[in-house]
Amino acid sequence: MMGQQILIVEDEADIRELLRFNLEREGFTVLEAADGNEGLKLARHHLPDLMLLDVMLPGLDGFEVCRRLGAQSETAHIPVLMLTAKGEEMDRVVGLSLGADDYVVKPFSVRELMLRIRAVLRRGVRSSESPVLERHGIRLRPEAHTVEAQGEELLLTATEFRLLEDLLRHAGSVRTREQLLNKVWGYSFEGYARTVDTHVRRLRAKLGDAASMLETVRGVGYRIKE
């Protein structure tokens, strides 16, 4: 984890200082921006390993920054952990629906935040398992981090990619929300099942005609048809 770069986009100087201090103590290198426009510019130029993105920002707000990152192939892979002071479910759902990988509500525990950051970064570590996964016209190559559906390349976020990869590896078997949280997100906390549901909806929208193979098993979880 040493040397990994994290971009903080936060307009409150004291929070930026707190985050920078703790991240550097953990061995990360840190970039900072105080508004959405500057954060987007730094993200495109440096392609950090992770972005800590506040929702309420001058200029572009965090939601719009997240949307623009996800709309470009060069930046769609950057994991985004959103910081929100509101703590309302709708804010979290909006952030996740725009491609955020996770969220933390202010005021946050620094210890919890560091655990979340580590969990998000672990998701980017590629496994040495099967180099190609194919089902129902979907072709996923973990090492190359590419996905095609019906011959068309899909633009997935890092978390969407990991979610699809896990479901494909267990095709025919039901994956509970808890299993997906542990495998894809790296943790399982009460109340976070909505995170899985939101990402599954985004994934289905991007799969197009192939979306029908991703089934909901009511009251249990999700599965890819065998």
N-to-C CA distance: 37 Å
Largest sheet: 5 strands, parallel
Rough shape?
A: globular
Strand content: 15-25%
Mean pLDDT: 85
Strand count:
12
Write the layout of secondary structure elements.
Elements (H helix, E strand, L loop, with lengths): L4 E5 L3 H13 L3 E5 L2 H11 L3 E5 L7 H9 L9 E5 L4 H9 L4 E4 L4 H14 L9 E3 L2 E4 L4 E4 L2 E2 L4 H12 L5 E2 H9 L7 H15 L6 E4 L3 E4 L2
Parallel strand pairs: 1-2, 1-3, 3-4, 4-5
Antiparallel strand pairs: 6-7, 7-8, 8-9, 10-12, 11-12
Helix pairs in contact: 2-3, 6-7, 6-8, 7-8
Task: Spell out the key features of this protein.
alpha/beta, 226 residues, five-stranded parallel β-sheet, 21% strand, 8 helices, 12 strands
What report would you give on this structure?
- There is one protein chain.
- This protein is 41% helix and 21% strand.
- With 226 residues, it is an alpha/beta fold.
- Strand 4, helix 4 and strand 5 (102-105) form a beta-alpha-beta unit.
- The protein starts with a strand and ends with a strand.
- Helix 2 runs parallel beside helix 3 (62-70), helix 6 crosses helix 8 (193-207) and helix 7 packs across helix 8.
- The strands form three sheets. Strands 2-1-3-4-5 form a five-stranded parallel sheet, with helices on both faces. The chain has a four-stranded antiparallel sheet with strand order 6-7-8-9, with helices on one face. Strands 10-12-11 form a three-stranded antiparallel sheet.
- The protein is globular and about 50 Å long.
